[in-house]
Amino acid sequence: MKTLKIPEATIIRLSVYSRYLTEVDRKGIVTISSGEIAEGVGVSPAQVRKDLAYFGEFGTRGVGYNVKDLRRHILKILGLSVDWSVTLVGLGNLGLALSTYKGFRERGFIITSIFDNDPEKVGTKINGVEVLPLENLVEVVKQNRTQIGIITVPSAAAQDIADMMVKAGVQAILNFAPVVLNVPAEIELRNVDLAVNLEVLTFNIGAQRF
Ligand code: NAD
Which protein residue's CA is at the shortest distance from atom 42 of ligand 1? Predict the structure, then answer.
C-alpha cells in the first residue's frame, strides 16, 4: 500500500465505500453507479471515480459496478480479505468497549489476546478470549503471529506496552493513550484521540459563527 502512495483520505473513503457496499449487497442489489455510491456516502460522484481510479478500471461505462466485485476488490485493497490477529492491552472502560465491539470481527480484525495487569481481570473471559497477565504478552503474541496491537492502558504504561508489542513482533500499533510513543520506523503507529476530533468539530462550529 505504501509504495502506491494513495492519499490517506482516499483510503478512509474506501473504507466508507466498502461498508456502504456491504449494506447494498445485503439488500440484494447487483449493480451500482458511482453516482449512487456518492449519494449513499455523501461525496461527489467525481470523487468516487477518482478514488477508484487509483486501483485501475473497475465497472462498465453506462452499467456501473458489480456490487460484490467492487466490494471484494476494495476489501482486498484495504488488506481486509484476510483476517488480522489483534492483541489488546488494557481492559478498562475503553478496552472493554473495543474488545466487545462486533464490527471489528466483521471486518476481519480478530482480537486473539487480551492483557491487563489487574489480578481481578486476569483469568476472566471476553468473547471467549481469556485475559492474560502481561508476563505472557511477548510469548503469546509471538505464538499467534499477531500483527496489530491496541494500547488502551493509562499514559504512564503505554511506552512499556509498545516496547513489549514491538519485541513480540507486531507490525502496527493503534494507540489510544494520550502520549507520544517511540517505536522503530518500520512499525506503523497510529494515535487515536477523540478529543482532537471534538476540537475539530468545535473549531468548525466556531468558524461558521465568526
Ligand atoms: P481505565 O482506567 O478504565 O483502564 C485502563 C486499564 O489498563 C485497566 O484495566 C488497568 O488495569 C490496565 N492497566 C493499567 N496499567 C497497566 C499495565 N501496565 N499493563 C497492563 N494493563 C494495565 O482507562 P480507560 O478510560 O479505559 O482509558 C484507557 C486509556 O485510553 C487511557 O490512556 C486514556 O487516556 C485513553 N483514552 C483515550 C481516548 C481517545 O480518544 N483516544 C478516549 C478514552 C480514553
Answer: 194
